[in-house]
Amino acid sequence: MEASYTVAFVKAGSPNNGSGLIFWAKDNDNCYILLTNPNGSFAVPRYASGRYLLPVAWREDASIKKGEGAENQVKVVTKGNQATIFINGKEVVSFAGQPPEGGSEIGFKVNSGPEGSNSVAFSNFQVVEP
Q1: Backbone phi and psi for residue 111, each to the nearest 5 degrees, phi listed first
Q2: What is the bridge-based pairing of β-strands 51-60 and 2-12?
Q3: pLDDT given at position 46
Q4: Does residue 112 contact residue 12 with C-beta atoms inside 8 Å?
Q5: Closest of 95, 110, 106 to residue 57, by C-alpha
Q6: How far apart are CA 92 and CA 105, in angstroms?
Q7: What is the DSSP string of 31-79?
Q8: CB atoms near residue 105 (< 10 Å)
Q9: In angstroms, how far apart are the furthest CA atoms of the chain?
Q10: How far apart are CA 41 and CA 129, in angstroms?
Q11: Which of 46, 57, 59, 101 gives 53 a disulfide partner, CB atoms 3.0 to 4.6 angstroms apart?
């Protein structure tokens, strides 16, 4: 699949906390999540069997626009057990994972933290089979 969307942090009360696309999801307890945050970083955690793993640890990338209101174009391309992440047209990471058998679900996740609430806008969401 190829999923693309635009993300903007309307309010970044907790700027270290990321929000983004859930993919390769068997259900709410088994999934991968592409997270970006308003500080210009991204990560891909995997939630499985009640715990978080971190196939792609938090890292900054110059292609990510920072701050409240900044819009970032994000694309996730999966093929077999390979996922490739693009942010604002730049490939930022490719990694091997464990997609669920028989297809998967997708969705969005918004995170906030003790510093304050985040308000996140997702737009231009599109999913296609490449």
Answers
A1: -115, 145
A2: unpaired
A3: 97
A4: no
A5: 95
A6: 23
A7: EEEEEE-TTSEEEEEEEETTEEEEEEEEEE-TTSPPSTT-EEEEEEEEE
A8: 14
A9: 40
A10: 27
A11: 46
CA dist 57 to 3, 42, 54, Å?
21, 8, 6
* Series of mean pLDDT values for 10-residue runs along the chain (130 residues): 97 94 95 97 95 96 96 97 98 97 94 93 94
- Per-residue model confidence (pLDDT) at position 130: 76
Structure-block tokens of residue 76 = 């996730």
The domain 2-128 having CATH identifier 3.90.550.10: the answer here is no
Decide the pairing of beta strands 71-79 and 82-87.
antiparallel
pTM confidence score? 0.94
> Given this model, what pLDDT does residue 28 score?
86
